[in-house]
Design goal:
The chain is mainly β. The chain has a single domain (about 5-140), classed as Galactose-binding domain-like (Jelly Rolls, Sandwich). Helix content is about 5%, strand content about 50%. The protein has one helix and nine strands. It has one helix spanning about 20-25, and strands at about 5, 10-15, 40, 45-65, 70-80, 85-90, 100-105, 110-120, 130-140. A hairpin with a 6-residue loop joins strand 5 (about 70-80) and strand 6. The longest helix has 4 residues, at about 20-25.
């Protein structure tokens, strides 16, 4: 059974943080299991999150909870293997609401890094707000 592949050794990066206020809206708040905290991007056309894992993984599901009005209408999941380029694994289309949404990923290759591209924000200025982000899967052998 698939479980969360995000661990303390997983390194994350984000495209931006609103007003560079990482103490209040930084990337760590997507992973803290607290409903009161969130990552809030700054404005811009494309926002993204990258996750670099300590070893290769195979993704089976992505779970994300946006703030309604600050979600992404279309998203692209990309994977990266050492000495390669990012390749598209899947496209998914979240609803613009506050619910925790799950997106199954079919037949994903083993990757070392993931990049989640948030395209077409529901917000006029391109901001994205994520309360929770989790990636399910397994370590690749």
């Amino acid at each position: 059974m698939a479980s969360s592949i995000i661990c303390s050794e997983t390194q994350s990066r984000v495209s931006s943080v609103i007003n560079r206020d990482v103490k209040q809206y930084g990337k760590k708040y997507m992973f803290d299991s607290n409903e009161e905290t969130c990552w809030n991007s700054d404005q811009g056309e494309f926002q993204w999150v990258t996750l670099e894992f300590p070893q290769s993984v195979r993704v089976s599901e992505l779970k994300v909870q946006f703030q309604g009005g600050f979600s992404s209408k279309t998203c692209r999941l990309e994977g990266y293997v050492k000495d390669g380029d990012f390749t598209v694994i899947s496209h998914f289309y979240p609803e613009d609401n506050n619910a925790l949404q799950s997106f199954p990923i079919q037949e994903a290759p083993a990757v070392d890094k993931l990049k989640i591209m948030f395209e077409n924000s529901a917000d006029f200025f391109g901001r994205i707000i994520v309360y929770s982000l989790d990636v399910l899967g397994e370590k690749a052998s």
